[in-house]
Every structure is written in C-alpha cells, then in structure tokens.
Amino acid sequence: MLFRSAAITIALLVACNTTFASPQFLAEWKNIYPFSLSSQRNCQLCHANAEGGEPWNPYGFEIRDIYLEQFGSTQISLAIRSVEQNNSDNDPQGRPNIEEINAGSDPGWAIEPINRWIFKNGDVFTNKPSPFSAPASSEELCLLLTHSNGNASFICL
Q: How far apart, in whole angstroms, are the C-alpha atoms of residue 141 and residue 1?
C-alpha cells in the first residue's frame, strides 16, 4: 500500500510538472511576436537546455520570476511583455530585449561568453558560452560586424 501511494504521488508530481511546462508559454510568446525569428530557438529562447527545464538564461528567468511573483498562473503574456525594455542578456551593445526580438536575435543570449545560467535555488553559473554561434535568423555563413557607434550586427550570406 505504501509503495502504491508513493507511485501515485510521483505520477501526480510528474503530471503537475508537465502541466506547468513551457510549451504553452512558448506558444503565447509566438502569439505576441508572430514575426520574430527568435522563436526558432524553441525552448532555448528561455532555457539553457534544448529540452527546457533548469537552468534558465537571464531572459527566461526574468519572465519566470515576474510570472510567479506578480501574475500567477493566468498572465504569462504580461510577464513576457514586462521585460521588453530590459537588456536581459547584458550584451555589450545594451540592446533592449524587444530590439533583439524584432531583429530575430536572442534576448537571453549574448554572442560573447558572458552568459549566465540561473537555477531555482539561486545558483548562477557565469561566463557560459551561447548555445548558438549566430542569430536565430542566420543562414550557413554569418559575419559579426561591429559598427563605429558600438552596435553590432550580423550579415548572413
């Protein structure tokens, strides 16, 4: 009987975790920004791993925190929009998330190896490389250009 109770508890925890998983959040993100190529990153738009889960990149963790603290279980769209003006990836160009989203690049990842992985327990791994070598909208060959005003852009061939 004890084994059966433990098995049911584990099954419920797995089911609850799956229910709270992010595919519906990604779908909402795509509804908000339907023309952004950033969504091609799928789970790695917000997570370090292609499967989602822990850890998050700073963009995903900011959305997660705001969602959990302010909006509860019904307003993920408000949490997503609330970080548009932040520079979550702390890239040297200082571009707000919304500019990166509109450009089809990654609001949670800098090209330089200055990325952070953030865990629920507060642990932060720093100086991580981006899982991507070019923006989401890239083709086979991309060049990073640094402009005289300090901004950077990619030209893809």
A: 60
Q: What is the CA radius of gyration of the chain?
A: 17
Other Cβ atoms less than 10 A from the Cβ of 95: the count is 19
Alpha helical stretches, state H, the chain: 2-19, 23-32, 58-66, 76-82, 97-103
User: How many whole angstroms from its chain centre is CA 128?
Assistant: 14
Q: Mind listing the pLDDT tens digit for each residue in 100-134?
A: 999 998 999 988 888 999 999 999 999 998 887 65
The residues pairing with 115 across neighbouring beta strands, listed in sequence order, are 128
Q: Residue 149: CB partners within 8 Å, gap ≥ 6?
A: none
Q: What is the rounded CA–CA span in Å between residue 142 and residue 95?
A: 20
